[in-house]
Write a structure and sequence with these properties.
This protein is of the alpha+beta class and 150 residues long. The chain is built from three helices and eight strands; from the N terminus they run αβαββαβββββ. The chain has a five-stranded antiparallel beta sheet with strand order 6-4-3-7-8. Strands 1-2-5 form a three-stranded antiparallel beta sheet, with no helix packed on it.
Length: 150
């Protein structure tokens, strides 16, 4: 009878050790418990040469780490934003209802399902050598990226 007791103890000990190792693996080597974020990047390319002729708007394209249904896009001057989070944005779009999933978009592009926060407002021109911040939201998930036009 003592052999079954020791066998039961070993079994429970091994199962407990396996459970602890599985928990450690899940916590440290997966992203299950990490907050969701949006990774934003930018590029300043001449991708729209015909549209850009005669305009002073930069050919600024933003990219996301994966396609998302955005609920808000906001571009603000970084220096002003750091002192006042309620600074008037240069470009601000909000979701009407259900926006189309996007992975890339241009500055001042019309995105299906998003509309200007202030009706009739268009994106303001960006100045060179000024640092800006773009804030992108997709529901509760947000992402920010600082950029500068050279």
């Amino acid at each position: 009878m003592t052999t079954t007791k020791t066998t039961d103890k070993r079994t429970w000990l091994l199962l407990s050790a396996a459970a602890v190792l599985a928990a450690i693996f899940i916590i440290f080597f997966t992203n299950w418990f990490q907050p969701k974020t949006i990774k934003v990047f930018h590029s300043n390319r001449n991708l729209r040469p015909r549209l850009a002729q005669g305009t002073s708007a930069p050919n600024l394209i933003f990219g996301l780490n994966h396609s998302l249904r955005l609920t808000a896009i906001k571009v603000v001057p970084l220096a002003e934003y750091q002192t006042n989070e309620h600074v008037f944005p240069l470009w601000h779009l909000i979701s009407e209802s259900n926006s189309a999933p996007v992975r890339f978009f241009f500055y001042d592009q019309h995105i299906r399902g998003l509309k200007p926060a202030v009706p009739g407002n268009r994106a303001k021109p960006l100045a060179t050598n000024v640092t800006y911040r773009i804030i992108v939201e997709a529901g509760k998930i947000t992402g920010e990226h600082d950029f500068e036009i050279k």
